[in-house]
Amino acid sequence: MRKRKTYSTGFKTKTVLEALQERETIQEIARKYELLNFSLLATWVEHESPHPGLGDGHHLYPVRG
Question: Which phi and psi angles does 2 have, rounded to 5°?
Fold first, then answer.
């Protein structure tokens, strides 16, 4: 049986803060930190964000233009 990967609070904080800056998409940040599933990072952002409504998709997936 495979052991489930765990992430430290510091790692989660670093990635969430980077996502809140909105300089890169969630997918780009997840790829940079080798997260297997970008939705994991999106979930962390939704749960840790002090900004209500951040998890509505509008801020998580900014349109590149």
Answer: -75, 140
Crossing angle of the two packed helices 9-20 and 38-48, in degrees rounded to 10 = 80
Over residues 29-39, the pLDDT tens digits come to 999 998 878 88
Q: Is residue 47 a part of any domain in this protein?
A: yes
pLDDT digits (tens, 9 = 90+) for 12-65: 889 989 988 889 998 999 999 988 788 888 888 887 666 555 444 444 445 454
What domain range is 21 assigned to? 9-56
64 in a structural domain: no
Two tokens at 37? 């599933």
* Number of domains comprising the chain: 1
Burial of 7 (0-12, 13-18, 19+ CB in 10 A): middle
